[in-house]
Design a protein that fits this description.
11 helices; two-stranded antiparallel ribbon; eight-stranded parallel β-barrel; 369 residues; alpha/beta
Length: 369
């Protein structure tokens, strides 16, 4: 499984199942959610040796000029669709646990693991966008209860993935009578689990259950980042006897010259950014106003640690990110297809030269059906 290789810094691509990807901006070249676009990015990333494709769990958009993420593919079928056109990269589903029964999630995950020949991963999220829950006719749970629900949800999924005999389960949220599922996933004991939660409760859930914790990192303080990563590793090790990877996200503006990169970043963020949609997304959970003069730039939408500069400068920043203690980062751009190809051509060789990754020898790429 690619996410368990020995590269010092693993790379993924984030958000190619939702319109505009991770950046709420009307800048030219922004991501459009069509299957040919999704497939093109997946095949390019696979051929270049990226480790993971990770989607955003989304059911509706965030309004504003862009209706950010409003055109979106469901993430289990999105992952299943990419499995046959790639050979090596891990295909993740990001699952809102209240919207998918664990019996269904376990069977869907197993099916994708077989389609991909053991390359499926599951990113567990609780959800927080009330308008999405209203579409399902459900009320949002209180924060702590939501994580209790997620823990029991995963326990049930794990039993379907691992137990060879029928089992009964009766808990606070689920009742399963004579639960049983075949086949089992190809990956043993089961596919890798990622968990994306920003709260202390979310961090504790990741330390207890996840193989990969997905966290946000600061654009301001290296010490804050190092301590945050060290703390979640320590919790996993000392409280639960587990070792886990820690990943984060990076928004990339990489250009042949520094001035080109420095010009484009404020253009897409300040001039073309859809800060109304970004504010709707944030819902008071974190600041989402347009950066004022003198404030650090931050990407509108799903944010991410900004990597702005020439290929050489971006690699220097990746070295700093790796020094925080991260095992991997998922990348996003405004124009995924063009900028991914530029990354593969100009940045990836420098990443390898810097010792962050070994040179990649592709085994060959399947053709789209």
């Amino acid at each position: 499984m690619s996410v368990y290789n020995d590269n010092r810094l693993k790379l993924g691509i984030f958000g190619t199942n939702v319109s505009y990807g991770t950046a709420a901006t009307t800048a030219e070249g922004h991501f459009e959610t069509t299957w040919p676009n999704v497939a093109d990015i997946a095949i390019t990333a696979d051929k270049a040796g990226f480790e993971a494709l990770i989607p955003v769990a989304r059911w509706r958009g965030f309004g504003g000029t862009t209706d950010f993420n409003g055109t979106c593919f469901e993430t289990y079928t999105w992952a299943a669709g990419q499995a046959p056109i790639t050979n090596n990269i891990a295909v993740f589903s990001t699952s809102h646990v209240p919207t998918v029964h664990p019996v269904v999630a376990a069977k869907q995950g197993t099916t994708i693991d077989h389609i991909s020949n053991g390359r499926f991963g599951l990113n567990i999220v609780c959800g927080w966008y009330e308008q999405e829950f209203q579409m399902f006719g459900s009320a949002m749970m209180e924060h702590e209860a939501a994580y209790d629900y997620a823990a029991e949800w995963f326990e049930v999924v794990r039993r379907f993935w691992t137990e060879e005999e029928e089992f009964d389960h009766e808990g606070r949220f689920f009742k399963v009578v004579k639960g049983f599922s075949q086949p089992k996933p190809i990956q043993k004991p089961y596919p890798p689990i990622m968990q994306a939660g920003s709260s202390p409760t979310g961090a504790r859930f990741a330390a207890k259950y996840a193989d990969m914790a997905f966290i946000g990192i600061s654009n301001i303080s290296d010490d804050v980042n190092k301590n945050k990563i060290a703390d979640i590793r320590k919790m996993g090790r000392e409280e639960f006897g587990r070792e886990l990877q820690v990943w984060s996200s990076c928004s990339v503006v990489c250009r042949p010259t520094e001035q080109e990169a420095l010009d484009f970043a404020p253009y897409y963020i300040l001039e073309k950014g859809d800060w109304e949609a970004a504010g709707n997304l944030a819902r008071n959970r974190f600041p989402a106003h347009k950066p004022a003069p003198g404030e650090p730039l931050r990407s509108p939408g799903w944010g991410g640690h900004l990597l702005v500069g020439t290929p050489e400068q971006v690699v220097d920043k990746l070295l700093a990110v790796a020094d925080f203690g991260l095992d991997g980062v998922v990348l996003s751009w405004v124009n995924y297809q063009d900028e991914l190809r530029y990354w593969v051509r100009e940045v990836m060789p420098l990443v390898e030269q810097a010792g962050l990754r070994k040179p990649y020898k592709p085994a060959g790429i399947a053709a789209p059906a």
